[in-house]
Prior knowledge:
Helix content of chain A: 55-70%
CATH superfamily of chain B: SGNH hydrolase
Distance between the termini of chain A: 16 Å
Radius of gyration of chain B: 24 Å
Largest sheet of chain A: none
Number of strands of chain A: 1
Number of helices of chain B: 14
Mean pLDDT of chain A: 91
Strand content of chain B: 5-15%
CATH topology of chain B: Rossmann fold
Structural class of chain B: alpha/beta
Low-confidence stretches of chain B: none
Number of strands of chain B: 8
Number of helices of chain A: 17
Oligomer: heterodimer
Largest sheet of chain B: 5 strands, parallel
CATH architecture of chain B: 3-Layer(aba) Sandwich
Number of domains of chain B: 1
Strand content of chain A: under 5%
Shape of chain B: elongated
Amino acid sequence: MLFNSDVFLRFFAAFLLLYYLARGSLRLRNLLLVAASYLFYGWWDYRFLALLLASTVLDFSVGLGLQATQELPLRRAWLGLSLAGNLGMLGFFKYYGFFAESFATLLGHFGLRPSLLTLHVVLPVGISFYTFQTLSYAIDVFRRKIPATRDFLRFATYVSFFPQLVAGPIERGGHLLPQFSQTRTIARTMVIEGLWLMIWGMFKKVVVADNLAPLVEMVYHAPPNSSPMVILATIAFGLQIYGDFSGYSDIARGIARVLGFELMLNFNLPYLATNPRDFWRRWHISLSTWLRDYLYISLGGNRLGRTRTALNLWLTMLLGGLWHGAAWNYVLWGCWHGGGLVAHRAWSGDRNNAEGRWKPLAWAGTVLFVSYGWLLFRAGSLERILALTSALAHWNAPPYIYSYLLSLTVFSAPLLLMQWWQSRSGDLLIPLRLPPLVLGLVEGLLIWSILIFWRKDSTPFIYFQF
Amino acid sequence: MRSHEYQFRLVELRQVLGLPLVVVVGLVFVMHLADFTGLLPDPRPLLDMDRTILFHQASAARTPQKADLLLLGDSSCLMDVSAPALGRLADRSALNLGTLSYVDLAADAALLRAYAAANPGRLRTVVLLLHPTTLRLGQQSGYHSELVWRFLSRADLPGAGFESWLGLDLLRSRLLARLLPVPLPGLYGATYGFTWDLWRQLDAHSGTLTDPGRYDPLAPMGSAEFRLAGGWEGACAVLRAAVPSGVTLAVGVTPCPASFVRPETAQSCRTLLTTLGQWLRADVVLTNLPLMLPDQEFASLTHLNAQGTPQFTSTLAGLLKQK
């Protein structure tokens, strides 16, 4: 079920009513949340539910196993079981085809024709998100950061919580799990904030991202030999993916808030970053902190000298790239960002952000760096990366560039203006400080715009494919 | 243990939810009021490729023009004949009002009537060009034909229930399409860009468009079949009735890729064309138009490319000059 679909609106309206009725019992509420979440997820393909359930059962059992023993080898074995189960599932569904084909291509260069079993495996929606979420739980229990839960229903609610099930934020057990054990208080301000997040998130998806998507496709589908077009399309994609993904995160956080839950912030004005490290502190925060806490630190972090730190950083980002998809362009994207982080660390040491007169230059450099990364990310194949990159040398433009510029400006302006306002005020929820009448007017106009661009055949969120 | 507690009364939500809804309802009201009082501009629904083409041809049909030679037909007519080149080669002034294969002959007749009404006494020749595939399938879409009728009468697009009630159709086709170009899909997008640019292209080439595709001979299954689907006889009578007296009506079929046509079927194509000519009571049946052309001159199964169009246009001009 997609947030931006008629069926979800009906589902959510019915769910809200039942949720209101279930307010007397915590157990009933969790049961309702699990049932709704399984319905939400099973709407794509009911067969995927088995995977979700398997992941839930596995890590619930691993948690109990870890809790029950103090012996390190046994605890390691339990953690190994979780890693093998989750990464095995992810590896099979997401990476088997990619590695089998890449291996066959490699052998082909040596004149060998291996008879590999190549399966066209359907990728279950959101598998990368919920496997990472359950893995974080097992690792946190192993590290004794959180106690294992003995309540299966509560754990199932944590794994399947529908607002963030398919595209995050990737929540930690320590943050979200306790919320399912407590009576939640839903204040009027939470409803106001939740409603705003849902409306603004939906606007970013339906009005901004979905209208920028064809502009991007126009150039990336058949790259023209035109530097201005490649540049504009790459800017458009940077804004599209931001609108799409942060839109999803906002809707997820808004829904959760209306239900009385808090989800972590996933985006914090990423395009105002002034260096690659700063960018990753603002972009997909739940993934970047996951990679930091569970991968980078596990590899040794910055404790093993400068060279090893650089290698760890680079390797973390490479794997982060691969997490996005089983394709070489994602690997390249990860390497690009890893390289950027290593270079920035070598250049600036532990200093965080540029100050004073260097700040605009640092910002522009970061935008350029991130944008070329988006080109790698969106291109889809190495051939297209080459075509798009070589097109940057041709400074000519097709006659329709004015239409392109007009569309790009109109659909990206609201997003950029909001960023500017949020950054200037230092408050991500600054529109809520408007007088109620003005806020109502703004929300009404946003809803009207959403209705204008609402599609019967809803466009999926980009991150669903990961 | 309680699940959750609401620290507000439901009536308090009135302000939170009510205000935005009042704004939306207000905007709906304003749209309908503006429509009712005639404050909105005429429809200009350049909302996608099909509607841009149909709206352009309808607008061209009801505008004073110089053309005395009018091309009518499906998308193969739109794409295979360059009207400016045809005009030059045949010492005439030509306008292409070719549309899409899903538009029926009754809508073509409406275009013709509109042109004759806007340009009284100017028209000398009408050429109807259809692709064999169109003639074989013959299942025109009522929706697309209705669009032509509506565009000719400056009416709005057919409404769609709730969206129509919200005034969104009015907003999209009367205001939004004037303010924002819509990107075209696929190769058309890469070549022409946006609906506005497509409009300019059609304007600059007297209603002709070039298919930017490249024909893949391996793609189509089977081979060309030359037969007339049911319903054409009646449709031909409707078109014939729209041809002003004294105006020559010519009819022909557009070519297929050579690899798609079996040589033994050439005769059945001529028979088909003769029958069509009889039903239309055509003054000229263009039997000498090429039935097939080399594959490399095609953009798709039904459209010539930029290389094939000049050759076909030149042949057509030659035939029209002879008659």
